[in-house]
Design brief:
Layout: E1 2-8, H1 14-31, H2 35-43, H3 54-74, E2 85-91, H4 93-96
Antiparallel strand pairs: 1-2
């Protein structure tokens, strides 16, 4: 199984969205964090009494940083930028393959 990041930015070009995806992966790769962990920390309900531990806070901050870089990649110089969101999903290796694609990466 592979994880893919999709950028939802209505009105952005395919090139802008592709740049945004690459920028998101750079954030997660730089910190050595799987995007699913960051997404989970960012959206997991937190017990207000206990608060967020330091690791959860870092993971949530990485998710929000990825959203910020995606927004900047899709809307350079636009302020305020339109809503940009990330969608993280798991895809089956076989379904990700394209005709003539031996590696299943979508590229030859």
């Amino acid at each position: 199984m592979n994880w893919v990041i999709e950028v939802e930015a209505p009105g952005a070009s395919r090139l802008q969205r592709d740049r945004a995806v690459a920028a998101c992966w750079e954030v997660f790769d730089r910190e050595g964090v799987h995007p699913r962990l960051a997404e989970k920390a960012a959206f997991e309900p937190v017990d207000q009494a206990a608060g967020m531990d330091a690791e959860q806070a870092l993971l949530a901050a990485l998710w929000h940083e990825a959203v910020s870089v995606a927004t900047a990649a899709c809307w350079p110089g636009v302020n305020p930028a339109p809503t940009t969101s990330l969608l993280l999903r798991e895809v089956d290796d076989e379904s990700a393959r394209q005709l003539g694609d031996a590696k299943g990466l979508g590229m030859e």
